[in-house]
């Protein structure tokens, strides 16, 4: 049998193409398998690409079936491989809890002085650590670990008796009268003092002794000189910080140069001026010529008497009539009595009208307490306050503006605003009663730091007219809020 030979010229080419295609397919499969094996091999060491922090293990997980979940298998420690990259950073720590005590420890002997220059007053304060004062006042007694309330009182009294003449001040060439000295035990550090509760015991390493003198000075002194004489226990230097307005500067008093001179040079703001007391147009009184009336009545009585007696005047009645009329004209200018027909001022019924009267009166009350001499305070108060309210308002305002604590520093009001909510007439129809509220904000520097004070009042005020001016004559405080 004769073998059949394929004479198709494309047969060999097709065979070659088929073989090449199979060969290429096998190579691609092999490469894919090799890559997969390599990937699987390297996947045994995980690489972190997103750091999410340490994960907390799940404590509970709801079961998807009725069968209990099997316990997780923990691999042996030897089989756990270290991470290829550094461990993720720990989660951000929570903020530390607020401290329950603010212990300010005095680690070495200290001395610090402060000079507060204000309109109408200059205050000089000095702080020493209590341990130094105790060792100087009672050198033979051991230092206690803390000071009881009685020991604080005794220490203050002993220090006061020794320090009465330690400080002197002059304004220009005028020597100022030395005021009463205040001495008290202060807790904390200069510039960072803490309040002491009544009867509280203070650790010795937290206690200072504070000395305070309040001098009455001009509203804007050109120059002040403070002299310090309290040198004891080898203290030769006293650091000083001067506060005036919103500025401050540092200085030093030493045993060699005992006086510090401060020059104003326009740096201390002048006190706020008083507001003009609200006025009104008082009704013009009726001028009654009382003398002329009496003269005329007397002439009529005399004429009636002549008629009844039928008496004729010598020379006729004309000369007597002329004298009578001339006397009436003269007496009309000699004895005139003004009579006020209306004692009250104009009726105030609108809130805006009342507010224009109440606001300046209350503002002047606080401006009066910028002064530090009691007689000066009363003189300014009398411009806006009348009657029995004057003394009551003085005492209550002094209490409201005095800083809490043993020293009694007074706050100076820097901002004031008032609002009237309701107006009604008084029972006597003289003036009006206003329901109002006002805010008084002040700040005072003290022992190197400041104390803000904001008082908000809700009150009923009585405003009465007097001689063409409105006066504050009644005050009933209903609510006080201290912020």
Measured as a percent range, the helix fraction is 25-40%
Mean pLDDT: 78
Number of domains: 3
| Principal-axis shape | elongated
Structural class: alpha+beta
> Helix and strand succession?
HEEHEHEEEEEEEEEEEHHEHHHEEEE
Return Rg in Å: 48 Å
The largest pleated sheet is described as: 7 strands, mixed
First-residue to last-residue Cα separation: 125 Å
Sequence stretches where pLDDT stays below 50 over 5 or more residues? 1-27, 29-101
Give an overview in words.
By secondary structure, the chain is an alpha+beta fold. Helices cover about 25% and strands about 30% of the residues. The strands form five sheets. Strands 7-6-9-2-1-11-12 form a seven-stranded mixed β-sheet. A four-stranded antiparallel β-sheet has the order 5-4-10-13, with no helix packed on it.
Write the layout of secondary structure elements.
Layout: H1 11-42, E1 111-118, E2 121-129, H2 130-137, E3 146-147, H3 149-162, E4 167-171, E5 174-175, E6 182-189, E7 192-194, E8 202-203, E9 207-216, E10 223-228, E11 237-244, E12 247-254, E13 259-263, E14 286-288, H4 290-309, H5 318-334, E15 337-339, H6 351-368, H7 374-381, H8 389-401, E16 412-425, E17 432-446, E18 449-466, E19 469-482
Parallel strand pairs: 1-11
Antiparallel strand pairs: 1-2, 2-9, 3-8, 4-5, 4-10, 6-7, 6-9, 10-13, 11-12, 14-15, 16-17, 17-18, 18-19
Helix pairs in contact: 4-5, 6-7
Keywords summarizing the entry:
7-stranded mixed β-sheet, alpha+beta, 4-stranded antiparallel β-sheet, 3 domains, 483 residues, 19 strands, disordered N terminus
């Amino acid at each position: 049998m004769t073998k059949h030979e394929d004479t198709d010229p494309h047969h060999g080419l097709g065979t070659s193409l088929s073989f090449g295609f199979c060969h290429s397919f096998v190579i691609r499969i092999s490469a894919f398998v090799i890559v997969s094996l390599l990937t699987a091999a390297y996947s045994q060491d995980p690489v972190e690409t997103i750091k999410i922090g340490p994960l907390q293990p799940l404590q509970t997980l709801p079961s998807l079936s009725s069968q209990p979940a099997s316990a997780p298998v923990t691999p042996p420690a030897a089989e756990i491989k270290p991470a290829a990259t550094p461990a993720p950073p720990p989660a951000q720590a929570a903020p530390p809890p607020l401290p329950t005590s603010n212990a300010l420890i005095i680690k070495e002997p200290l001395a610090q002085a402060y000079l507060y220059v204000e309109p109408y007053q200059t205050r000089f304060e000095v702080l020493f650590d209590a341990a130094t004062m105790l060792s100087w006042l009672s050198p033979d007694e051991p230092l206690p670990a803390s000071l009881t309330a009685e020991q604080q009182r005794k220490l203050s009294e002993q220090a006061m008796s020794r320090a009465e003449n330690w400080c002197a001040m002059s304004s220009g060439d005028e020597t100022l009268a030395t005021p009463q000295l205040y001495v008290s035990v202060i807790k904390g550090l200069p510039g960072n003092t803490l309040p002491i509760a009544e009867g509280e015991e203070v650790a010795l390493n937290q206690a200072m002794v504070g000395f305070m003198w309040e001098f009455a000075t001009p509203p804007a002194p050109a120059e002040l000189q403070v002299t310090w004489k309290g040198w004891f226990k080898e203290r030769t230097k006293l650091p000083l910080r001067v506060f005036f307005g919103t500025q401050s500067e540092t200085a030093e008093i030493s045993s060699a140069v005992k006086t510090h001179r401060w020059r104003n040079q326009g740096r201390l703001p002048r006190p706020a001026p008083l507001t003009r007391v609200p006025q009104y147009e008082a009704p013009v009184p009726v001028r009654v010529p009382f003398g002329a009336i009496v003269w005329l009545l007397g002439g009529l009585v005399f004429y009636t008497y002549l008629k009844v007696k039928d008496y004729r005047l010598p020379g006729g009645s004309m000369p007597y009539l002329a004298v009578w009329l001339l006397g009436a004209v003269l007496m009309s200018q000699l004895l005139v009595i003004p009579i006020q027909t209306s004692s009250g001022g104009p009726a105030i019924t609108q809130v805006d009208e009342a507010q224009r009267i109440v606001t300046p009166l209350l503002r002047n009350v606080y401006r009066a307490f910028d002064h530090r001499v009691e007689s000066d305070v009363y003189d300014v108060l009398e411009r806006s306050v009348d009657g029995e309210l004057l003394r009551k308002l003085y005492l209550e305002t002094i209490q409201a503006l005095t800083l809490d604590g043993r020293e009694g520093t007074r706050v100076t009001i820097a901002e004031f605003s008032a609002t009237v909510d309701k107006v009604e007439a008084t029972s006597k129809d003289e003036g009006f009663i206003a329901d109002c509220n006002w805010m008084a904000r002040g700040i005072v520097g003290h022992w190197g730091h400041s104390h803000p004070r904001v008082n908000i009042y809700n009150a009923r005020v009585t405003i009465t007219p007097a001689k063409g001016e409105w006066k504050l004559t009644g005050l009933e405080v209903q609510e006080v809020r201290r912020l």
